[in-house]
Amino acid sequence: MKSAIIKTANPDKLKQMIDDGNGKATTRTIDLDDILTATKSIETTLNVSKKYMEGVIYSVDVNAQDFAHAYKYQADSTHFTLTYKNGTWRVSDIVRAKCRPYGERFVCLSMSGETEEAIVYKKKVF
Length: 126
Hints:
Blueprint: E1 4-5, H1 12-22, H2 32-46, H3 50-53, E2 57-60, E3 76-85, E4 88-98, E5 106-110, H4 113-124
Antiparallel strand pairs: 1-4, 2-3, 2-5, 3-4
């Protein structure tokens, strides 16, 4: 699947990717607002300047939830991968997969050492 730059001005390509990723599912799906909210959440949580965001990759499951142990099936939800490249967020993959536990909504797949140092520095100095 190709990646798409996240722009609110031209959401047609993203909507097509979202529709393909959701497939025929009717529950635990995503929409464009979920993607935009996830990008804002990552930026707010990391709280570093844009130059340190380069190369950051997150896998997101906005529908992550915990199920009772009596629930014998594993529910599916739509996951997407966000990549920060050349000053913009891109959606690089949208797939249906097993629903993650609630505490694992955002999972970092890749982050440069420079970014990690900037995050640690922000937490040490306040």
